[in-house]
Amino acid sequence: MTSPVTQQKPNQQAMSNKKGQMEPMPKMTLPTVPAPKDNSMFAVSMKGIKSGQQKSNMMNQNMNNTMGQHMGNANVMGQHMENANVMGQQMENSNLMGQSLKGNELSDTADIQVSLVEALSLIKDAVEGETEDRMFYDFLINNAASRKDKEIIKGIRDDEIKHARLFRQLYYEHTGKVIGPKQNVQFERPASYCEGLIKALMGELNAVRKYRRILFAMKERSHIDILTEIITDEIRHANLYNLLIHNNDCKY
Question: What is the per-residue burial (b if ≥16 Cβ within 10 Å, else e) of 125-154?
Fold first, then answer.
């Protein structure tokens, strides 16, 4: 029998010499890429690094701006909250003042509850005092310190005559009765012209309070208009008397 022939792998066969001896395989070399002569590779890397740093800086700046905005908003909210606390304190103080006033109610609050009977009684008193009022105005005119004073007082007197006529009209429209001033009245002369001016001023102020009570009892629009005209005249008269008192150096 013949001995079996040993089979060789193709690469081994290729590397065998003619004598059947194995030769060493040649060394394989990888191709090399020549290095650039300049710093272009480093420039690309540095450009990427700089770009990343710029993005990071922008992100940090945006974060700082956002945080600053939030902090600013927080400060504004804090200011609003502080103002709200101040307003709340003021409202609380107002409530306390309201409670104090409620315990000591002003007498003027009773003016809004006036019956027609009371209003008619006040109207009657105003008309019946017309004669005494005319005597009082004559005294002021005769003792006035200047012609200008006399003109002012005469204008006030004419308004009061008109008021008496309007009051008589109101009384008649509500009751159907005609009323007039009292005849036999006694007039107490003031001690001086200045004393008469001060008395006249206080009389006008008291008249405003009295006529306001009459106003609250009126229902018809025409009657309300009449009282509004009378009251505004009385307020104007009070201002004129203040002027006369000042011009004449009158002392209270």
Answer: ebbbbbbebbebbebbbebbeeeebeebbe
pLDDT tens, residue by residue, 167-207 = 999 999 999 999 988 888 888 999 999 999 999 999 999 99
Burial of 123 (0-12, 13-18, 19+ CB in 10 A): buried
Distance CA 52, CA 46 (A): 10
Residue reference for tokens 């002369």: 189
The residue type at 212:
R
> What single letter denotes the amino acid at residue 126?
A
Dist. CA 148–CA 154, nearest whole Å: 10
Helices 147-175 & 130-142 angle (0-180, nearest 10): 170
Residue 43 phi, psi (nearest 5):
-65, -40
Tokens 């992100």 found at:
59
- Separation between Cα atoms, residue 68 and residue 65, nearest integer Å: 5
DSSP for residue 22: B
Two tokens at 140? 């002021």
Tokens 């003792």 identify what position?
143
Q: Are 141 and 150 in contact (CB under 8 A)?
A: yes
List, in sequence order, every residue forming a beta bridge with 22; answer none if it has no partner. 16
DSSP annotation of 179 reads: -
Instruction: Classify residue 21 by burial, with Cβ atoms within 10 Å: 0-12, 13-18, 19+.
Output: exposed
Model confidence, pTM: 0.57
Q: Collapsing DSSP states into helix, strand and coil, what is residue 25? A: coil
Neighbours of 107 (CB within 10 A): 7
At residue 159, the pLDDT reads 96
